[in-house]
Write a structure and sequence with these properties.
heterodimer; A: 413 residues; alpha+beta; three-stranded antiparallel β-sheet; 6 helices; B: 153 residues; mainly alpha
Chain lengths: 413, 153
């Protein structure tokens, strides 16, 4: 081994951290990669987690090895919201009456079945109703999406009683949803005994008395569209309609009829100490990576411009810092300490765009990163450079890197 | 296993856990057969590597891509040095191909010989040598690692 190889070896051994100290069976019983195999995958993964806890770093060792025991309780038993990936609570039946509103901090419904190869990627509970400067506590719709590696995907939007669903397209490639996607094209077979309609690119059905849901599919290639998978749209949003195939419609029906009303709470590594003056919350987004809820985003909008399409986007990530600052050039790191937490800050704004990231620096192996992003700087009192981040950070009380201490409501003190 | 997975995934704990769990779930499924093996840990290890190498970069079906790395340069502040070296290493690892990462992990983290590495990855020893050489060349060029690799600090 050369000296350089030796140095690399020492670097790797010195730098690779110990595994996170919290690893529970709960952690892996959240929605995972392939829901079509959920029935067997969940107990398997739960058991695997126990093996992992017992054998992390050393593998499995015994001359003849007994079968790993099934988990009886997680290490986080009794602790509320033990996982950063949201906690699935007890399943409830499909509602008979549609709710008048949803709690925007909880995803009320989710996929119960997805075709093989599809993975959930994003969920949104938006449209906080800010009234009198207070943060709204209800929302009238929730949406969530799933995709496959080849670009095809589904997005579901569930509307509260009496509300018209406004399908969200942020979980779909923008070019995949054309204005005609929601055109009603005919009567579909009942979904769980309730009326349904075919849309040009999907299915709309009454999921409960007074409440409708929309399921859209798209995002595939032209060849896939020609075979009946939704419309095909170019990057320039020029769309060509294709007749949905029977297979595509059968998938829509199966996805729609298998939604599970199992609430999932978003968890946050921070609380707001206050909202910046003149700002209010507009949306909460959960980002799924490989089917796991990995981060939560909160959007703030100026009260005098609540309909802006350019909110201040606040991202929080547990391990694996992934701040959305593509295309920016960070030139240096500055440090700031608030509420006892030291942050390494990098930020850049150029022209009409700005992005900044702050990484909590600790001696522990886990981490929490915050990202701040706004495409235009017009609404920010201070440009989103390092000084701008230092203006924003004091509005948060950070709850540390241990998800056990995180909260499901960041808006209460 | 998790530390190896951390290296393979370029320092992403969430992915590392997924990778280790995927491997262990595979082991679980075949437990009656695996349990009588002489070295089940080696089998689990190999399953994890094969799983990693078979993973393809997934294209997210979303307009809000949030997977860019928050690149952190080494800080001059002593208290952050360890954390920052790790961050630089994570960033540097992500510049490598999956195969290069696997070779680096086996050769220099697990101290396996070139022959062992080749056997695990099911490739020629020459391939291991060339992949390692290319990986080291990339790491050497990384601004945050250049000094460490060349003995500058």
């Amino acid at each position: 081994m050369t000296m350089e190889e030796q140095r690399l070896s020492e670097l790797l051994k010195r730098s690779v951290p110990e595994p996170p100290f919290e690893l529970s069976a709960d952690r892996v019983t959240v929605p995972h990669i392939d829901r079509s195999r959920r029935s067997w995958l969940m107990p398997v993964l739960a058991a695997a987690a126990v093996v992992l806890v017992a054998g992390a770093g050393v593998g499995l060792n015994a001359a003849r090895h007994p079968s790993p025991a099934a988990p009886s309780a997680s290490s986080a038993q009794g602790k509320a919201q033990a996982t950063p990936t949201s906690t699935a609570t007890s399943a409830i039946e499909r509602p008979t009456e549609a709710p008048a509103s949803f709690n925007p901090l909880v995803l009320p419904v989710n996929f119960g079945w997805l075709p093989a190869g599809f993975t959930e990627n994003q969920a949104e509970t938006g449209e906080f109703s800010g009234a009198g400067g207070q943060i709204g506590v209800t929302t009238t719709q929730a949406s969530f999406g799933a995709s496959a590696a080849d670009g095809r995907g589904f997005t579901v939007t569930v509307a509260a009683r009496g509300a018209a669903a406004t399908p969200r397209i942020t979980s779909m490639a923008l070019e995949t949803l054309d204005t005609g996607a929601l055109t009603v094209t005919g009567t579909a077979p009942d979904v769980n005994g309730r009326p349904a309609k075919w849309l040009a690119d999907g299915l709309e059905w009454e999921y409960a008395n007074g409440g409708w849901a929309t399921l859209l599919g798209g995002g595939g290639t032209k060849a896939q569209a020609e075979q009946g998978w939704g419309n095909y749209c170019t990057a320039a949003n020029s769309c060509t309609p294709y007749t949905p195939s029977a297979q595509f419609r059968a998938l829509l029906e199966k996805v729609a009829s298998n939604l599970t009303w199992t609430p999932q709470s978003f968890t946050f590594p921070y609380r707001f100490t206050a909202l910046p003056s003149g700002w209010t919350v507009s949306e909460v987004t959960g980002v799924f990576v490989n089917g796991r809820l990995s981060s939560v985003e909160t959007n703030l909008v100026p009260k005098d411009a609540p309909n802006t399409k350019d909110p201040l986007n606040i991202q929080a990530f547990s391990s694996g810092s992934t701040v959305n600052c593509a295309g920016f050039n960070f030139s240096g790191t500055t440090f700031a300490t608030y509420n006892g937490v030291t942050w390494a800050i990098q930020a850049d704004h150029s022209g009409a765009t700005a992005c900044a990231g702050a990484r909590m620096t600790t001696k522990n192996t886990g981490s929490v990163s915050m990202g701040f992003e706004q495409d235009t700087v017009a609404y920010l009192p201070t440009p989103l450079g390092p000084s701008g981040v230092k203006v924003i950070l004091p509005f948060f009380k950070f709850l540390g890197i241990n998800p056990v201490n995180w909260t499901t409501n960041p808006f209460t003190s | 296993m998790l530390r190896t997975a951390w290296l393979l995934t370029g320092g992403d704990w969430a992915l590392a856990e997924d990778l280790a769990q995927a491997a262990l779930s595979e082991v679980w499924r075949h437990w009656p057969r695996v349990s009588v093996m002489e070295a089940p840990e080696a089998y689990a290890h190999k399953v994890m590597l094969n799983t990693f190498l078979s993973w393809r970069r997934r294209r997210r079906w979303t307009a809000e891509i949030s997977t860019e790395r928050f690149v952190v340069s080494p800080a001059t502040t002593g208290g952050f040095a360890t954390v920052d070296t790790r961050e630089v290493l994570r960033h540097a690892l992500r510049q490598l191909t999956t195969k290069q990462r696997a070779v680096i992990t086996l050769r220099y983290f697990e101290d396996r010989s070139e022959a062992e590495t080749a056997a695990i990855l099911d490739c020629a020893v020459g391939t291991v040598k060339s992949q390692a050489s290319k990986a080291i060349a990339k790491l050497r060029k990384h601004p945050g690692l250049a000094d460490i690799m060349t003995g500058g600090r």
